[in-house]
Amino acid sequence: MSLSVTFLGHACWLIKSGEYTLIIDPFLQDNPLAPIEPEDIQDLGYVLVTHAHWDHLGDTVNLASRHDALVISTAEVATMIAEEGVRTHGMHLGGTHDFDFGTVRVFPAFHGSGVPGGHAAGFVLTTPEGTVYHAGDTALFSDMKLLNGVVVERVDLALLPIGNNYTMGVDDAVLATKWIKPRVVSPMHYNTWPVIKTDPDLFKSQVEAATDTRTEIVEPGGSFVLDEQS
Ligand code: NI
Ligand code: MN
Predict the structure, then answer these.
(1) Residue 178 C-alpha to ligand 2 middle, in angstroms?
(2) In the prediction, which pLDDT does 227 show?
(3) 104: CA distance to ligand 1 center in Å?
(4) What is the model's pTM?
(5) For the chain, which ranges sit under pLDDT 50?
(6) CA distance 90 to 118
(7) What is the 1 CA–ligand 2 centroid distance (Å)?
(8) Maximum distance among all Cα pairs of the chain, rounded to whole angstroms
(9) Neighbours of 21 (CB within 10 A)
(10) Is 72 exposed, middle or buried (0-12, 13-18, 19+ CB in 10 A)?
(11) pLDDT value of position 116
């Protein structure tokens, strides 16, 4: 089992599972931490968008158009993006759908959606190579406990915001990690701007003091492989 995971800064992750390449919240062009340009992305099949705030929607239309990639998001965001002529698959909270790379379950996020009538979301991706939870932008909420053995058997990798101000800060993200009990956790949504300046080592030390979860702090542009030994 191996899943290759690359952090592109802020909440943007590039995930390679088998022959499939997915990007989540592709905020590159205007992202001060992005290590690459949208043009540098290769062989993209899917763009997943947690909500329509500009720092998550980012380069979605550009990337989806260039690669003829399928955009997966909530119905309101998918409808808005479809008007730009890209292929979309609308879903909503609690819904699961099978794609060729694996299954997507749309998980709640407590946050604005950035589009009228919408709701922010996170994603649980279940692939043959492992299960990934991308929390999107969210506050701490106790239904995260369902990610440990109820909606999925176990999360292999949790991607959690720690930057505070707009989302959970370190203390709440540590509590989320205790509840979710992933094998590996990686922090995101910090240090992009001064208002979310946060020390990820503080998160790592608190997680590792309180849980058995390994913390992978990934610099923008950095990658790691999630394997059975992780
Ligand atoms: Ni947001
Ligand atoms: Mn955000």
Answers:
(1) 23
(2) 78
(3) 20
(4) 0.97
(5) none
(6) 12
(7) 31
(8) 49
(9) 20
(10) buried
(11) 93
What is the distance between the alpha carbons of residues 7 and 202, in angstroms, rounded to a whole number?
Answer: 19
**Nearest alpha carbon to residue 175 among 151, 196, 144:** 144
CB-CB contact of 40 with 192 (8 Å):
no
**Amino acid identity, position 76:** E
Which residue, 105, 37, 50, 45, is CA-closest to 77? 50
Ligand number nearest CA of 189 is 2
7: burial class by Cβ within 10 Å (0-12, 13-18, 19+)? Answer: buried
- The residue written with tokens 């094998």 in the block is 183
Length of the chain: 230
Distance CA 96, CA 93 (A): 9
Ion ligand 2: residues, Cβ under 5 Å: 55, 137
Single out the residue of 37, 117, 39, 22 nearest to residue 77, CA to CA: 117
Minimal CA–CA distance to 27: which of 50, 4, 59? 59
Q: Is 142 helix (H, G, I), strand (E, B) or coil?
A: helix
Buried b or exposed e, range 127-158, using 16+ CB within 10 angstroms: bebbbbbbbbbbebeeebeebbeebbeebbbb
Which tokens hold the place of 45?
Answer: 């099949």
The pLDDT value given to residue 229: 60
